[in-house]
Amino acid sequence: MSEKKTIRLIVTRQDRPDSAPYEEEFEIPYRPNMNVISALMEIRRNPVNAKGEKTTPVTWDMNCLEEVCGACSMVINGKPRQSCTALIDKLEQPIRLEPMRTFPVVRDLQVDRSRMFDSLKKVKAWIPIDGTYDLGPGPRMPERKRQWAYELSKCMTCGVCLEACPNVNSKSNFIGPAPLSQVRLFNAHPTGAMHKAERLAAIMGDGGLANCGNSQNCVQSCPKGIPLTTSIAALNREATIQMFRNFFGSDEV
Length: 253
Ligand code: SF4
Ligand code: FES
Known about the structure:
Blueprint: E1 6-13, E2 22-29, H1 36-45, E3 73-76, E4 79-82, E5 95-98, E6 105-107, E7 110-111, H2 114-122, H3 143-153, H4 160-164, H5 177-188, H6 196-204, H7 217-221, H8 228-248
Parallel strand pairs: 1-5
Antiparallel strand pairs: 1-2, 3-4, 3-5, 6-7
Helix pairs in contact: 3-5, 5-6, 5-8, 6-8
């Protein structure tokens, strides 16, 4: 008689933000076409570990289930990525699930990504417009520029590039690749360019461009294929020009 196919998972668990992490192994029934989230849902449905002991359901974040919201990031078999697009059939077992340690752990695989959202605030990653009356159509962007700006706009603040970057950690205040790339996006916008100097000033200081070690990990890990290192190189050029502008007190450089 053939044995029932199962999936083995080793999950790094943590009960509270300040408690010690520990590993718990699970063995769940296999179904075709499962992803990591459906495996976690199976554990939630029947929270019993591989030793047959009743345990607490594993906690994680998710929302869109189609690699758009960025909420479900975790480290899967050593690689930070989205759990909604991580197919069980394509993963080596036992499948190791860990939280992204660049961010404080809330519980189990759930992390607090505020660090990244605070950085987006710091670099003013928005276009300030007065929404109290109809401003009419905005200025048009040249098609070629619109195309690359669209690629940058796909960022879903998943935090994977920050997790992959060796220079983003608890000892550094480096804002990381995603917020830098958003500076390039908003500076490229005809209306957003009004605040270009302020955004550049924010990344020319501590925790900004100079903290990038050019490891290239970010661009390789981004699930959206965002050209992060190209953005960082372009910003380095913009920052140098801005430095001369500041030095000569002129807009003409
Ligand atoms: S740049 Fe890519 S990896 Fe980084 S937060 Fe945005 S989508 Fe995620
Ligand atoms: S649940 Fe939204 S990206 Fe995975």
